[in-house]
Amino acid sequence: MSRYKPIRLDHQRLDPAQMEQISIQLLEQLGSRRSVRSFSDDPVPLVLIDRAIEIASTAPSGAHRQPWKFVVVDDPQLKLKIRQAAEKEEQRSYSSRMPQEWLDALEPLGTDAVKPYLVEAPYLVVLFAETHQIDESGSKSRNYYVSESVGIAAGMFVAALHLMGLATLTHTPSPMGFLREILQRPANERPYLLFPVGYPAERCEVPDIARKPLDQVRIRNLDSREADS
Ligand code: IYR
Hints:
single chain, 229 residues, alpha+beta, globular, binds 3-iodo-tyrosine
């Protein structure tokens, strides 16, 4: 007996004018997102974090394994531990591990090894990728397209937070094995990204950088259809 048991897709078409409207609105809203490195310590309702995780968890994934875990941290002691461990790694990265070319690429972003946002933001959300799963019987089964799947979920998480009015940063301390130890996660979970989440600080500054225009990120390989827009 096949385990494939399809159900009917529930899908309502929108009218094209509405679709166009939504696309403009989404571009405007998501276009104002910025990576934030300076957070207010104002509290954020936990339900918003949970909901952003539920939204992220709607991401498509290889063989529908949903190979992600979002660990939500608000304990000041734990945040401090994470900050100290991240800064220790980042200090080594900035002072000797990163080649000059990389340091030059980061210069316009104004980043360095000091990460106060890891204690300032009301939440740290640590995203882990599950390399494999342990099923009910205790046997190991592998996951598929893990980094693609987790990357899509991460993107949806970032978008959801922004649309809710919150700010985050896709922080990448490297190496970040310390997160598994501090958060006592099992060996099948690999730290993937660290998100401080909160409101931007009152006088938050961000680098003055622009996004690539559409014609630098989109290559069209079309028939002549719609070739003029
Ligand atoms: N992991 C370092 C360096 C860094 C890397 C990238 I890619 C950035 O966009 C910014 C910084 C850090 O988080 O500082």
